[in-house]
Amino acid sequence: MDFDELGRRGLVLLGCGKMGSALLAGWLREGLSPASVWVIDPAPSDWLSAQGVHLNEDLPEAPGLALVAVKPQMMGHALPALKALGGGGTLFVSVAAGTPIAAFEAAFGAASPIIRAMPNTPAAMGRGITAIVGNAAAGEAHLALAETLLGAVGEVVRLDGEDQMDAVTAVSGSGPAYVFHLIETLAAAGEAEGLAPDLAMTLAKATVAGAGHLAAEAGETPGELRVNVTSPKGTTEAALGVLMDESTGLPPLMARAVAAAAARSRELRDG
């Protein structure tokens, strides 16, 4: 099933909060007709209401895809709205954190192709990254379609198994918060050295954003880029001596942070 066939069969979006809205906006930019989209959302935004999609209407009999974008705590209430679509004809894609494939197989049947996806918040700017993994009923065509749809808001990578999802959650799902905190702490350190708060924050934001863009687009690895900007006996080397300390620096701190996030993801998954 390709994008054109999906447009003919219809796409159902269950939940249209920040992530659902980002995805829908990306699909519409890519040329998907609003008339091909059915959205179920109990409190639609003004933006959503103005898009021309089918909003809280009866669903098509056999849509090509149903994307679940509700909060995990709302699953029990929301999933029954899609139960009639189960059985194999409709591909289900979930972007809900912490809800395993088994929960969707219980709701829609193991014969239904189901793909679990973990996007992150930069998707709102079209710069996200999403990891996907499917159940036994999800074939190559299903995964390719999911890649196309989720690629509207950034990069997409495939996992070898669902057991990797906790680590993905800890690295890229929660990762933007780590970077935001880096900006906060870098600006605070600048203030401590005498910069005005607004100037320190402007410098920190631009530095992190620019370095991230360079890391994404440059041919060198992040390690090579770090070496390139580090002059012997210079200021950067002095700072990296603190940050790269194997006992108290960033490597052990980041390892503990990611391990804590992954452990919490497993706790939430296992109930």
Q: What strand order characterises the main sheet?
A: 3-2-1-4-5-6-7-8
Tell me the strand percentage band: 5-15%
Low-confidence stretches: none
Provide the helix percentage: 40-55%
Secondary structure category: alpha/beta
Number of strand elements: 8
- Terminal Cα separation, in Å? 35 Å
The chain-level mean pLDDT equals 93
Count of alpha/pi helices = 12
Top CATH class of the largest domain? Alpha Beta
Summed up, the domain count is: 2
Please outline the major beta sheet: 8 strands, mixed
CATH topology of the largest domain: Rossmann fold
Q: How is this structure best described in words?
A:
Helices cover 48% and strands 13% of the residues. It is an alpha/beta fold and 271 residues long. It folds into two domains: 3-161, 3-Layer(aba) Sandwich (Rossmann fold), CATH 3.40.50.720; 173-270, ProC C-terminal domain-like fold (Orthogonal Bundle). Strands 3-2-1-4-5-6-7-8 form an eight-stranded mixed beta sheet, sandwiched between helices. Helix 6 links the parallel strand 7 (128-134) and strand 8. The chain is elongated. The mean pLDDT is 93.
Keywords, separated by commas or semicolons:
alpha/beta; Rossmann fold; eight-stranded mixed sheet; 12 helices; 13% strand; elongated
Would you summarize the structure shown here?
The protein is α/β, with parallel strands linked by helices.
Protein topology:
Layout: H1 3-9, E1 11-14, H2 18-29, E2 37-40, H3 46-49, E3 54-55, E4 65-68, H4 75-78, E5 91-94, H5 101-108, E6 114-118, E7 128-134, H6 140-150, E8 154-158, H7 165-173, H8 175-192, H9 197-217, H10 222-228, H11 235-243, H12 250-270
Parallel strand pairs: 1-2, 1-4, 2-3, 4-5, 5-6, 7-8
Antiparallel strand pairs: 6-7
Helix pairs in contact: 7-12, 8-9
